[in-house]
Each structure stands twice: as C-alpha cells, then as structure tokens.
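[User]
Um, tokens okay?
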Amino acid sequence: MKRALWVAAASVGVGIAVLGIKTLAWWVTGSVALLSDALESIINVAGSLGALVALKISAQPADANHPYGHHKAEYISAVAEGVLIVLAAGSILREAYLGFLDPRLPDQPWDGAALNALATVINAAWCVVLMRTGRKWRSPALSADGRHLFTDVVTSGGVLIGFALVPLTGWPVLDPAIAAIVAINILWTGWSLMRSSVSGLMDEAPPADVVARIRDLVSIHAEGALEAHDLRTRHAGRITFVEFHLVVPGAMTVAAAHDICDRIEQAFEADMEDMEITIHVEPEGEAKHRGVVVL
C-alpha cells in the first residue's frame, strides 16, 4: 500500500507539470483545441489528488464503524473522477461553441505543437506506470487514473494531428472542431469509468478466471470434507472476499474440521494475494450435492 501511495503522489506531480506545459502551449497559440487539452489536464490533477486521498483512506485498518475495512474508498474516487471528466467535457464544448462563432488561426502554431507533444510524451510514459501498478496491486484508484491518462494521451495525439492541419490548410474552423471531438471522447471515457466503478460498489463478482481458480483451490485443498457449496465472491478495492459452506462428516471433530479450514486458507494465502475468507462448517446432513466437489 505504501508503494501505491508513492505512485499516487508522484502522479499528482506529473499531472501538475503536464498541466503547466499544456497551459503554456495554449497561451502561446490561443488555440481552442489546445485549451481543451489543458482543461483535461486539470481533471488529471484533480483525479490524481482524489486517488491519493482514496488510497490513504483505504489503507486504514478495519474499525468498529467499518468492520470490513475502507477498501471501497477507491471506487468512490474513481466515480468522482468520472464526474469531473464529464464536467471538463462540458467546459470544452462551451469553448468549442465560442470558437465556432468566431474562428481564427492560432498564433505560433508550431511552438505550441512542440510544447503539447512534450506534455503528451510525459503523459504516455506515466500512463504505462499507472496501468501496470494498478493492475499488479489491484488498485481501482490507480487503474482509473491510468485509464483516464491513456485517454488523455490518445486525445492529445489526435489534437496534435488536427492542430497541425489548421495552419497547413488555413481553415480556422478546424480548431474548435477538434476541441468538440475531444469533448465527446472525454464524455465517453467518463461514462465508462463511472460504470466500472459502480460495479465495484455494487459488489460485483471477480472475473470468471479468478472465480474458477478459487473453486479449484477449494476442491484441491479441502481433502477430508465432502463438498463445498454456496460459494460467493466479491471485490472491494484490492481485496477479494470469499465465503462458502464446507460440509464435513458428522462424526468429524471440530479440531479436524478446523484443520481443513486452515489448510484451505493457507492455500489461498500462498496462491492469491489480498483474500478475506469466511468458511461455514456444516455436517453431512446439510449437503446439497452441488457446488464444489472435493477431490
């Protein structure tokens, strides 16, 4: 978790640096398209700050008011970032509309393009870091920040290509048109981000391959039990919660049944990170003859 906090803090610094470069590019050119790119960078900084705060909250241990921990704070950060993205898109659309009403060729276009290209390269490099660490450490906040930054890289590339056409063609209306396209793309990204985060808040199950691995681990390491049924899983930030009923012979001692549970938990700990497991032991009369077959 400390590593994730360091990455989130560094992301704020990178975002501020990129914002400064893109703002300078807009100031040099007066371009509506480059202004739209700078406005999106403001959201990058706000999103990175939100991710940092969410990671700090989610790192807090469980307490009396939050017995299952604070892991879902990361999803709230991702939803908030999605809302900010939508607001940024609205602001860009407004600037694009004003640009359509009074189109003009940008000043010093090649200087502005060079500055924006530098900012895009920095964003692309940092995007790779965020996507890898978010996936590796299963952090929704870092993953959301990385996905947003990836969108920024793609849109910045499109802006640069379109912006280069403005002085080449002499068509000033291309400038606000590019800004409008950027805004629509940002809106789609914001919607996708909020949709995936809401799934986490609604206790959506992990991916099918993760569930299959969970079932395999129970089946392999529950030797001595008869079956496992009513298996349920859910994600909460980087934590995966697993619970199921384990059916054992009626004559088995509590100590022996406990040993089986310990063996299953140790197998999960060795094979999968950040798991919280709850096992309900039942006598053979409660068998449902379905679910996970014990090998």
About this structure: The beta strands are 227-236, 239-248, 275-283, 292-293. The CA atoms of residues 132 and 143 lie 8 Å apart. Residues 208-293 form a domain with the Alpha-Beta Plaits fold (CATH 3.30.70.1350). The chain has eight helices and four strands.
